[in-house]
Structure formats: C-alpha cells, structure tokens
Amino acid sequence: MTSYMQKKEEVSRKWYVIDATDVPLGRIASKAAHILRGKHKATYTPHIDCGDYIIIINAEKAKLTGNKLDKKIYYNHSQHPGGLRERTARVMQEKYPVEMVERAVKGMLPKNRLGRSMYKKLFVYTGNEHKHSAQKPEIMEVK
Fold first, then answer.
1. Which of 8, 33, 93, 129 has a CB 3.0–4.6 Å from the CB of 108, allowing a cystine?
2. Burial 37-48 (b: 16+ CB within 10 A, else e)
3. Helix 25-37 crosses helix 97-106 at what angle (to 10 degrees)?
C-alpha cells in the first residue's frame, strides 16, 4: 500500500479567525502554526504548503504569563557595529503588538522557503476589525 501524497494543485484552503483576547501568546502561536502548516488535515503532506489562512485579531490583548513582560527580551541587529537593539515584551506589547505575535508564529514554522510561503498566509491585526470578511472566515477557539 502506498502513502497518499497531495499535489499542490489539489490543495483546498479555508480561512480561520483567532481572537487573541486573554489567551497566552504561545498557545495562539502554536495553534496558528499548526493550521498554517496544514497538520490538522488528513491530507497533510510535509513537502507541500497545504495549510489554511489564519487571521489573528486583538493582538494587543494577547497575554504573557509569569514575569515575561519584564524578563523576555526581543533582539534586533542592524548588522552595523553597535547596532544591537533590545526591547522588553512590555514595550513590544504596547508599541508593536502585531510584530510580537508575528514573531511568535514565525518562530514555530520551518526555516526554509516552504516556511516562508506558509508565513504569507498569516494576517495579524490590532482591534476587532479585519479586511477579510469576503472570504467568510470561520471562528476558531484557542483555550
């Protein structure tokens, strides 16, 4: 018996909305990465981008547990001498909540061209509004 391998032309995609209000950031990110990879489907094929689209709303209301607000640090480097920039999670949540959620999800995706194509199906917004209502997304609960 042979294994079923899905072809990229046969992939059917759905849209899902995740509300990040009072949900831990790691749970949102792991659920979103799982859906973006397509691992929730019976037709999952590791070398094909067979995942669905994810819309995350209320990114600024994502919760961080423990002392992460003050102890977790996000690093960026400009590739110039002395170009290291550090921000705490509190600063990221106040000023850049979309980037914080995007970085959490991106870190859980494969680090190759397949992962980059999966990442393009992620849309993160602050507030309740998003511009993808024409796609009729389903609401997904994350506990």
1. 33
2. bbeebeeebeeb
3. 50
